[in-house]
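Section 3.1: Structural characterization of target chains.
Under the original work plan, the team committed to producing a structural model for every single-chain target entering the pipeline before any wet-lab resources were allocated. The record below documents one such target. The sequence was received from the expression subgroup and is listed exactly as submitted; it comprises 134 residues.
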Amino acid sequence: MLKEVVHARGHPNVAGTHRSTFEVTRDREISAFADCIIAVAADKGAASLEGPLKKAMARDDAFIICTIEAGGFRDTVTGWGSAAMTFTAEDSMVFRVSDYVCGRTVMINADKPAARLDRNLIKALQAENKAKIE
């Protein structure tokens, strides 16, 4: 099993209310309208993920498990990879409920978007706790 850890932090404007995606960004600041972004100041974007992991995720049969931790709370999201994934975005990574793929996409057909993440985890991210996305 391949694994990679992305370190980030929460932000007071994390809303976690988007109904079809969640995003982790390298940006340090976000507006109150960024309802899909759950963590900022990430140390990696989609393009920065390790080559072997990207190769494994760029398969239609790749089953992906993402764990998000912050402030003592944790949630897990599962979904799929796609042969269409290109991992070209340096600034962010997006996990999608749909099967839409672009350079920021790292998971499709996810079992939950930002709006369905554990609300205690979202509160911990709003309190600017450090975040670990695995």
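The chain has two helices and eight strands.
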